[in-house]
Amino acid sequence: MRRPLPFTFEDRTAALTNTDFDDIYDRMFFHVERQPGSSTTKIFEMHFPALRHRGKLPSNSNPLIQLDFASDEHLGTISFFKAPYQSALSMSQYLKKTSFFGSSLSRKFVASDGREYRWGYRLSPGQEWTCTTSDNQLVAHYDLRPPNMRYFDASGNNLVIYESYAHIAPELVASCLIMRHIALYNL
C-alpha cells in the first residue's frame, strides 16, 4: 500500500511578505503579497505555480486570508474570506500562547475544522517550525535551507503539510507566517 505524499510547498523567497508557496507535485499553490508601505499581507490561492505567474499580481482576485499587522509590526487581525470560516479575529486571540508564562514561540490555534493545532519553534532537528495536533500527531513543518546547501533552481525552504491536513493548508500557511513574524519581531 502506497503512503500518500505530503504537500511539499517550496517557499520561493522565504520572505514573510512577498513569496509563493508551490507544491512540488503541482497540486496546490499560494501567493503571499504585501504592497510597499502597507502593513497588510494577503494570501491568495493560485491555479498554477509561481514560475508561470511571476510578475503578475493577483489583484483581480480576492485573498483567502488577510493579515493586518499594526504599523509598528505588532500583531493585528487575521481575516478569513472563504466559507466555512468567514471572520476576523485578533491574531493574539487566534494564535494563543500554549501557556501563560511559556514562550511566545509556542502557540496554538483552532482551525476551521474545529481541531486544535500547535506551532513550536525548533522542536525537531532540521525543522525550523513544527505543527502538531493536541495529541502530538505531526501536521506540518517549515524547514529553511541549510546555510551550507548550494542554491540551484529551488530555494530549499519548504512548508511540508501532511495529506490528512491539506483541507486546512491556507490556515497552516497563514499561521506559519504569523509565527515567523512573531520570531522576527520578538513579539
TrEMBL record:
This is DUF6593 domain-containing protein. It comes from the Eukaryota. InterPro entries: DUF6593 (IPR046528). Residues 16-181 form the DUF6593 domain. Pfam families: DUF6593. The lineage of its organism: Eukaryota, Fungi, Dikarya, Basidiomycota, Agaricomycotina.
